[in-house]
Amino acid sequence: DVKVTQSSRYLVKRTGEKVFLECVQDMDHENMFWYRQDPGLGLRLIYFSYDVKMKEKGDIPEGYSVSREKKERFSLILESASTNQTSMYLCASRQGGADGYTFGSGTRLTVV
Amino acid sequence: KQEVTQIPAALSVPEGENLVLNCSFTDSAIYNLQWFRQDPGKGLTSLLLIQSSQREQTSGRLNASLDKSSGRSTLYIAASQPGDSATYLCAVGSNDYKLSFGAGTTVTVRA
Questions:
Q1: Which of A5, A10, A75, B55 is most buried by its number of CB atoms within 10 A?
Q2: Is the dihedral of CA A95, A101, A102, A104 positive or negative?
Q3: CB-based contact A105 B43, cutoff 8 Å
Q4: How far apart are the first and last CA of chain B?
Q5: What is the arrangement of strands in the sheet containing A73-78, beginning at the earlier edge strand?
Q6: Is the CB of residue B100 less than 8 Å away from at least one CB of chain A?
Q7: Does B64 contact chain A (CB < 8 Å)?
Q8: What parts of chain B have a pLDDT lower than 70?
């Protein structure tokens, strides 16, 4: 089975800190995605990458950046964390085309 | 823009009853449709993936149908168990790398 591993289940960071969320997949998938999930707003796409070093903005990229230096790893960066970035962050990957998505177990980030 | 709606928002049934979860979408030009399960505070677990050329998929007690022309999918869970209690999400895949999610149906199966 494909595994998508998010390095942290829970994180607590201070306002203004630079935060790195890491995601690693083990099945050589081309596409990787970062979503955030909030009550009442559902899942919203932040950024995605369809290939190494390639990235595209999703629906809510403001305040975030990403890095994909290797195929298996996709990092989400909060340049200066703010309280409105407190959320559940979910990483996903897929091979491409009509392939299904595999999600990680999520990172619950709290910014205080 | 693809809009995905799931009805009902919440469902409570006694153990053993069959579950019927509905998903509708506005744009029939889809690549596929995927059903996920999410337990509180956890990530998404894929249940079934239906390609646009397929009408249904089955896995154990789960069966999902797809009617592209009417923009509908239904997830059936037979003989529900308390362990089926979770939120079920419908997601539609399109040709722009994006997945459009419904808001989910929260299911409670009472023992």
A1: A75
A2: positive
A3: yes
A4: 41
A5: A4-6, A19-25, A73-78, A64-70
A6: no
A7: no
A8: 96
